[in-house]
Amino acid sequence: MAVNDPERARSDPELACVALAAFDQVVAATPGFRARGGQRDMAQRIATALQDVTLGEQAEPQSAVAVIQAGTGVGKSAAYLSTTVAMALARKTRVVVSTATVALQEQLMTKDLPALAAVLGTPFVFALAKGRGRYVCKLKLERLVGSDGEALDMFEGDEDVVAAPQAKPAKGVVWQDPLERRMQLYDTLASGLATGKWDGDRDSLPEQPEPSDWGTVAAERHTCTARHCPRFGACSYYQARMQLAQAQVIVANHDLVLASLGMKALPELDNCLVVFDEGHHLPAVALDQFSSAMDLSGLRWLDKLPRILMEVADKMGFVLVQDVTTLAQQLKTALLEASRLAMELLRGVASTYDTVYRFKDGVVPDAMLEPFKLIQGHAGALSDALEALGAELKLRAKEDPSQALLCSTQYAKLGPLAPKINSVVATSAMWLATDEPPMAKWLKSDTSSGLVSLSAHACPIVPGDLLRRHLWQQVRGAVVTSASLTTCGSFDYFLSETGLADLPQVSTLAVDSPFDYQQQGQLIVAETNADPKQVDQYTAEMVAALLADLREVPHGALVLFTSRVQMQAAVSALDAALLEVVLVQGQLARSRLLGIHQARVESGHVSVIFGLQSFGEGLDLPGTLCETVFITKLPFSPPSDPVEEARAEWLKHSGRDPFSELVVPATGIKLLQWTGRAIRSETDQARVICYDKRLLNMAYGRRMLQGLPPYAVSRRPRV
User: Fold this and answer.
1) In this structure, are residues 219 and 136 in contact, taking their beta carbons and an 8 Å threshold?
2) Which pLDDT value is given to residue 454?
3) Are 96 and 275 in contact (CB under 8 A)?
4) How far apart are CA 266 and CA 98, in angstroms?
5) 433 FRET partner, CA 20 to 30 A, in 12, 23, 50, 659?
6) Helix or strand holding residue 687 (H, E)
7) Is the bond preceding residue 437 a cis peptide, omega within 30 degrees?
8) For residue 76, which of 114, 51, 106, 104 has the smallest C-alpha distance?
9) Where are the alpha helices (DSSP H) in 564-630?
């Protein structure tokens, strides 16, 4: 129960004292701890900001969001965990810690939270929250095991995707029939559950199953009757939910937090404290959560839909109000017409079937909008029929427990249809919308499956609007932190992108790293004759300079590329000696590649990692594992992303400069992350070598430079 006394909650310095005392307790118990003023400043800010928030139902609620950039080495997880957990325990509420990566979740669950629990005076329980789809549905599994595949159709809404012809298996690899593989998997899963060797969590399996195989038995909201299911008492997902209900600290991820808004899968955000670590990912996650897409080529599910609806309705003696057969036929006709018009349009503008076509200003031609109006109407009516039938099944399971098994099984038949109908309803509505700012709307066709697939997409273009409307209106007390929230020396871009700009409850703090970058590091800008915009000439010159520098690497190094094409050009230029020391992202699993790199360096050999964007963030290679970071080009995003294109277009029409307002700050954040791979501890000595002369020669490059740690900067003239 949260504190609901407004006078106490509005100003309770005692809470701040409790939080800071917990922080002091943690640092005092940390072996070999080095005092870090920035870490103390961070803890102080969190404690004072959150002492004033009011939780639960309040006539005039008070909120606080502390936005804190904490440089590498500050120890931000210890600062925010000790303060927020202590404060939550004192207020008898809970903390949700949301991350963007699995690696940080694992660190929190296996290292940081156990360490806090060992020293904090008040005991607490912590748990990891996962999406429902990470758990098995025991009811589905039971229906499939021993069925020889006959029951597969019951739980699958569509098998439209026809794979490309399979290549012959490699020598020594035994080909296995997909159905046989699935049934063996399901038998193994059922055996593991029966013997207690498996808990129903996909992540605890020794080997991860194929996504399509797992999807058939995964727990899903649309196929679940929850407490009315006869297997509810033994449900892996709801058992995990019960553990969450007992936990005072819940570790989740940004996707799950945003997807769960209003769903009661996590604590209500107005009645707990929230920490968003790796907070710079929030805008991208918001756009992904609120985007929509529908398939215009795989439509066989519409042939199954009326049959399944009528079979379930007949089984339950329920009368469908809608003529679902006619509606499904009409919807398929409208989708086929939309597909025909889309293919005609794409053939007129592209020479390949692998293409993306965005509608300028979000304006779709009237001729194409006509079938979308029909799609919206027919899909909406079918969605209503599906929802009414599903509601009836849940009601009967609740009122007559003897029918629970029958109702749950029938409900599971409907489940796979719901996401398909929902995507059609949502996407068509967004295509018909005339909002301001306009939606990004585009068509995509590709041949990766061996056939031409066609889809329609839509997405809002301003993430800050989404987060302000859907997230920050609910949150009462929050910490948003990361090592890269400022760009070009300012929080402005991040606050705008996250919808926090100009909100009175928001405070910001930038905490410097304890590292002495002037003494520990160098940033060298190696100039080239070619301008980076001259792609071929620049790449050739950069690769030549890079290879010369790689020959001087004494231990470990990291090379970060802006594109796979650029990385492949460097790989192709490697001679036999360098090929022996270079490890390339994608050629091995990430963990395996990093393990080999560490083993090589620790045994006295040279090792160099070639990586792309994902290796520029969250990679921890201290000491000799990474003495040089090579940046092959300023990490501008490719200009082909339809949402970014649409947003730039809208800003131009509004008289604003998208390059200065969006592109430069976003690139500055990436550059901060990339250079952050160099120095990881107080004893590291490392260099950053950037081959892009624009960092010093262009005004926008110097803007980015202002947001980087204070390295000793030098210029290496062109040869």
Assistant:
1) yes
2) 95
3) yes
4) 11
5) 659
6) strand 686-690
7) yes
8) 104
9) 564-573, 576-579, 590-602
pTM of the complete model: 0.90
pLDDT at position 35 is 75
Here the tokens at position 635 are 């990490």
Q: Using DSSP bridges, classify how beta strands 521-526 and 712-716 pair: parallel, antiparallel or unpaired.
A: parallel
| Nearest residue to 436 (alpha-carbon basis) of 363, 375, 359 | 363
In the predicted structure, residue 579 carries a pLDDT above the cut 50: yes
Asked if 252 and 129 count as a contact pair (C-beta separation under 8 A), the reply is yes
Check: CB of residue 251 under 8 Å from CB of residue 129.
yes
Q: Give the other-Cβ count within 10 Å of 442's Cβ.
A: 21
The DSSP element (H or E) to which 148 belongs, if any, is: none
Q: Environment class of residue 88 by beta-carbon count within 10 Å: exposed (0-12), middle (13-18) or buried (19+)? A: buried
Beta bridge partners of 136: 218
Q: For 492-534, write each residue's pLDDT tens digit.
A: 999 999 999 999 999 999 999 999 999 999 999 999 999 999 9
Check for a shared fold between 6-125+247-287+464-511 and 517-716. yes
Show the tokens assigned to 115.
């360490």
Output the DSSP codes for 462-518. -HHHHHIIIIITT-SEEEEEES---BTTBSHHHHHHTT-TT-TTEEEEEE--SS-HH
517-716: which CATH topology?
Rossmann fold (3.40.50)
DSSP type of residue 232: G
User: What percent of the chain shows pLDDT beyond 70?
Assistant: 94
Which tokens go with 237?
A: 């997902």
Dihedral through CA 532, CA 492, CA 441, CA 533, nearest 10?
A: -10
What is the number of other CB atoms lying within 10 angstroms of the CB of residue 40? 17
Alpha carbons 358 and 441: distance in angstroms, whole number: 6
* Residue with token string 């520098």: 549
Spatial separation of the C-alpha atoms in residues 244 and 251, rounded to whole Å: 10
User: Of 160, 157, 232, which Cα lies nearest the Cα of 386?
Assistant: 157
In the structure, what pLDDT confidence band is assigned to residue 57 with cuts at 50, 70 and 90?
A: confident
Task: Provide the Cα torsion 541, 543, 544, 547; round to 10°.
Answer: 160
DSSP string covering 374-388, please?
HHHHHHHHHHHHHHH
CATH topology of domain 6-125+247-287+464-511: Rossmann fold (3.40.50)
Sheet with strand 453-459: strands edge to edge: 292-295, 453-459, 440-446, 355-358
User: Where are the chain's structural domains?
Assistant: 6-125+247-287+464-511, 132-158+177-238, 291-384+421-459, 517-716
| Residue 293 DSSP one-character state | E
Q: Which residue has the tokens 């090379």?
A: 559
At position 656, the amino acid (one-letter code) is R
Rounded to whole angstroms, the Cα distance separating 573 from 539 reads 11
Q: How far apart are CA 282 and CA 294, in angstroms?
A: 24
CB neighbours of residue 340 within 10 Å: 12
Q: What gap in Å lies between CA 2 and CA 93, rounded to an integer?
A: 5
